[in-house]
Amino acid sequence: MSLFAASSPAVPFPVLTALVLVPLIGAVLTAIGSRHRPEITKLVALVSSVVTAGMSLWLLAEFDSHEGGFQLVSKHSWIDSWGIGWHLGVDGISLFLVVLTGVLFPLVIVGCDPHHDEKPYLAWLLLLEAGVMGSFLSLDLVLFFLFFEIVLVPMYFLIGGWGYDQRVYAATKFFLYTMVGSALMLVGIVTTALLARDDLGRLTFDLVEIAEGSNFAASTGRWLFFAFAIAFAVKVPLFPLHTWLPDAHTQAPTAGSVILAGVLLKLGTYGLLRFGVYLFPEAAVWSREVFLTLAVIGIIWGAIAATMQSDLKRLVAYSSVAHLGFIVLGTFAFTSEAISGGVMQMVNHGVSTGALFLLVGMIYERRHTRQISELKGLQKVAPIFAAAFMVVMLSSIGVPGLNGFVGEFLVLIGSFSTARWWVVIGATGVILAALYLLWAYQRVFHGEPDEANSSFRELRLREGAVLFPFIALIVFCGVYPKPMLDRIEPSVKSLLERVEEKTDFVVPVSDHSGHGEEGEG
Amino acid sequence: MVQYPSIDWLAISPLVILLGGTLLVLVVGALTKVWPRGLYAVSTAALSAAALVVEMVLWNRVGHEGPVSIINDALAIDRFTLFVWIGVTIATGLVSLSTADYLRREDLEGPETYTMYVCAAIGAMIMAASNDMVVLFLGLETLSIALYVLAASHRRRVDSQESGLKYFVLGGFASAFFLYGIALVYGAVGTTNIARAGQLLSQQVFVDGDDALLLAGVALLMVGLAFKVAAVPFHFWTPDVYQGAPTPSTSFMASVGKFAAFAAMLRVLTTALGARADDWRPVVWVLAVASVVVGSVLAVVQSDVKRMLAYSSIGHAGFILIGVEAAGHAGDQDGIPSSLLYLLLYSVLVIGTFTVVTLVTRSGDRASDIGSFRGLGKERPLLALAMTVFLLAQAGMPVTSGFIAKFSVIKAAADNESYAVAIIAMVASVVSAFLYLRIMISMWMSDAESGDEAREKVAVPWTAGVVVLASVVFTLVAGVFPGWLIDATRDALVVVR
Fold it and tell me: Distance from A18 to chain B by nearest Cα, in Å?
């Protein structure tokens, strides 16, 4: 199977490399820009993020939807002595995460004000974008690790420098938690490459080469899978490793929360697919029941915990734990619908939870509180704001016609044949989601506004402009998910073929091919 | 008639340049008035640069002509030696520059400190090159005595005197252990020559415990060397000495001192005792694990930055010991290169770190509490940014040299299936990341407290600025393009045997 077939003739524009380098250069330029000309700094940051967004959309157009392998591959040697290369590529699984990253950052830069020290804030944000892009695009184990780990630094400074009261505690917890996972992963990466050397004849950290050419013994593969999975489970976060998430989310500045929920958590679920299932299919199948169970516990636990929160932002944070549980459920169900649904849900969750965090941030800007008990009757004074919140919230609940439904529905229906009882329990999470979100909405927006809430400001034009793309995506993906699924499915299918080939797991054939969900409910 | 050995003058010219040059600086300096700003430091740095050039020439020569053993097999000139020489020379130049304004600030200006640096560096270089255990001991003592003086060189600080005395007493013990170890090994093997001992031991078969003498000797050698590299449980001097010594001297100890001691350890263990690797490897394993764990855990609970960095240097020594352990496996090709790479990268890092600490401790060299870093991000953003790079590198973050260093030893360990030690070390490095985060929090995220206004401002003289800048650039360049360094360390595998 040729992986480079899709790369066009002549010398194509190395769009993937540019996706990493443009924000990086933007970060450097922002950092060295003059402190006395903040408008130029902001412009530089905005331009580099918009250019990145443009390139990610161009990538979307260039992407060949019938090809399941890696496309637009860019491969250069880097540290030859250790077999580490600059190897980037995109397939249906990473495509929309890249686009989501590209789109989210300019919106966040426009939509969230840091209040102080804008220059370093923007520089960290752009560095974060470069790191996230690199993580989604890397096809080299060490390169991936490099980006995966480097992401911690800007996020740490964003939370610690621009967050709320407990920011230092939350930032430190976030940093150390994630680092424990990646410490094991580094050992796993090194060991994987060294063991694969026996099969490949040379030392390389190239993901594709290792996956195609190596044959790990079952027990070895399981240990290695475990080393990778811990890192991703922390990042997802999977129960019981999720405790850093509510703190990080609550204390992070709005931009940090949006990015954290929107794309950073997806590094975990994406990593499980790309590096867990793809590299170690046998171990992934072997351990699927553990992951399914943890995912379902996460769904229920996250939902119950969210119900009990008094802080609106914490509530959204716990809802992420539940939503990410669905994605993991889909991943380890090993059917085409379930994994495609999971990938879709990664993007959907990024859009809807990102928007929810933006809205909660706006509430905090106006009222300087996130306590549900102190908010009341906002619908009366700010109907448009309430409407926007309503749409986003309904998408997060998974109401048919909006994007959240498509992913969750595909996960549930796809998992039913291979993980029936987990689905039965997990599905109650959908109901619980309706419970905690509607209840929160009711408490915050319904009723008569008291004195403090009666001066709540209506949605501003700039805020509306930032929210509009989110809501447009929510509706579009909900009504017409086909273009997205068309691009995701070939890659998912080739991943599953690999699972079937390497293990005795049989992926059930079903007639749900990802079409026609839009009307069901 | 006495037979004089022929001397390869070119091969020892770095030592000659350094010694002659520094004596010249010392004598001329003693006869003239105090030199204008930083000239002692600059001339010492120039000496290092001159030595560096010759070392580069030698590096080339060894590449063409192969390693040689010179002066009656007393010194081994191979790329292993030259790699350490280059590292030590660079470190000496950097530390000298970072000392320039320190001495003026503390009113200690004079050429003596620099002469001590250079003498210590010569000792270190002899240790790295020695092909004879007695010569090794000479180098060790030259280095150690200079370091004792350096530790005590701040005449008006009792802490400094105390640290010098502690280091001297404990170091004297360690040297005695080491010397006794040499005697016992000589008793068992019949030679003090390292390469010769290696040849003899690889042919000799011991039966029924008649190698007790040898093993006792090896044990004593290990004690002496482990003390010098500050491996747990021979680390107790480190925090006190690092904290009390003048900060630039601390950075010299942490870079050049470690470099030399590890070079000596590697040469003795792999060349002389390579045949007995199965005996010393478990010992190194225990030292490595103990060092990474104790170093990281105790670093976290300190409140004094110099003490923190002392414990963290113990942790880093543990990492390097992992490379040494890997070098003890049969047919290993990664152990020695990874240790050397780690040493070089860490030396530059630690010099950069301590240079920033030197500036932050302010006049009197006392403000090394973590609180002295409070608000540095506001007051001196570039300096704080540089410190952040050093700290992240020490934590092993990618894109910095620290990651490359950690990666290389972890790879060496995994290649020899020492997975346990790799995992323990990585987890310990997460623990120690907390300590680096604490310093970063203090710099960037802590609110000002009352009395901060009255503190002396942190001044950044150009000499220190150059050192910090050079270290940052090296840290990042080596983190992104480490290929040439990796290849250089691989060349160091060919040694005099």
Answer: 17
Partner-chain residue, chosen from B426, B434, B490, that has the shortest CB–CB distance to A186: B426
- Residues on B contacting A at a C-beta cutoff of 8 Å: 392, 397-399, 403, 406-407, 410-411, 414-415, 419, 422-423, 426-427, 429-430, 433-434, 437, 441, 444-445, 481-483, 486-487, 490
Instruction: Please calculate the CA angle A321-A325-A330 and round it to the nearest 5 degrees.
Output: 155
Partner residue facing A172 (CB), from B426, B437, B482: B437
Query: How many CB atoms are closer than 10 A to CB B456?
Result: 10
Query: For chain B, how many helices (H) and strands (E)?
Result: 20, 2
CB contact under 8 A, B483 and A80: yes
B-interface mutation test, from A124, A142, A191, A234, most B Cβ less than 10 A away: A191
Q: What is the pTM of this model?
A: 0.92
Contact A265, A237 (CB under 8 A): yes
DSSP secondary structure letters along A294-345: HHHHHHHHHHHHHHT-SBHHHHHHHHHHHHHHHHHHHHTT--HHHHHHHHHH
Alpha helices, DSSP H only, in B130-157? 133-151
The minimum CA-CA distance between B393 and chain A, rounded to whole Å, is: 11
Alpha-carbon gap, residue A487 to A337, rounded angstroms: 13
Q: Answer whether B430 sits within 8 Å of A183, measured CB to CB.
A: yes
Q: How far from the centroid of its chain's Cα atoms is residue B316's Cα? A: 11
Suggest the residue from B411, B424, B434, B480 to mutate for an interface test with chain A (most A CBs closer than 10 A): B411
By C-alpha distance, which of B434, B394, B396, B441 is closest to B300?
A: B434
DSSP annotation of B69: E
In a mutagenesis test of the A interface, which of B430, B438, B472 is the best target, namely the one with the most A β-carbons within 10 Å? B430
Q: What secondary structure does DSSP assign to B242-264, as a single string?
A: HHHS-HHHHHHIIIIIHHHHHHH
What's the rounded Cα separation, in Å, for the pair B133 and B181? Answer: 10
Residues in A closer than 8 angstroms to B483, CB to CB, are 78-81
What residue of A is the nearest CA neighbor of B408?
A82
CA-based nearest residue in chain A for residue B444: A161
d(CA A392, CA A349): 10
pLDDT by residue for chain A (521 residues), tens only, comes to 344 444 444 567 788 888 999 999 999 998 887 778 888 888 898 999 999 999 999 988 888 888 888 888 888 888 888 889 899 989 889 999 999 999 999 999 888 888 788 888 899 999 999 999 999 999 999 999 999 999 999 999 999 888 888 888 999 999 988 888 888 899 999 999 998 888 888 888 998 888 888 888 888 889 999 999 999 999 888 888 888 888 888 888 888 899 988 899 999 999 999 998 888 988 988 998 999 999 999 999 999 999 998 898 999 999 999 999 999 999 998 888 899 999 999 999 999 999 999 999 988 888 888 888 888 888 888 888 899 999 999 999 888 888 888 888 899 888 888 888 898 888 888 888 888 899 989 888 888 888 888 888 888 888 888 899 999 999 998 889 888 888 888 898 888 888 888 888 887 775 544 444 444 43
Amino acid at A272: L
Surface of A (155-184) touching B: CB under 8 A: 156-157, 160-161, 167-168, 171-172, 175-176, 179-180, 183-184
Distance of CA A215 to the CA centre of its chain: 30
Return the closest-CA partner of residue B112 out of B187, B41, B48: B41
Of A152, A157, A183, the CB nearest to B429: A183
Q: What are phi and psi of A190, to 5 degrees?
A: -60, -45
CA distance A415 to A74: 35
Q: Do A145 and B392 touch (CB under 8 A)?
A: no
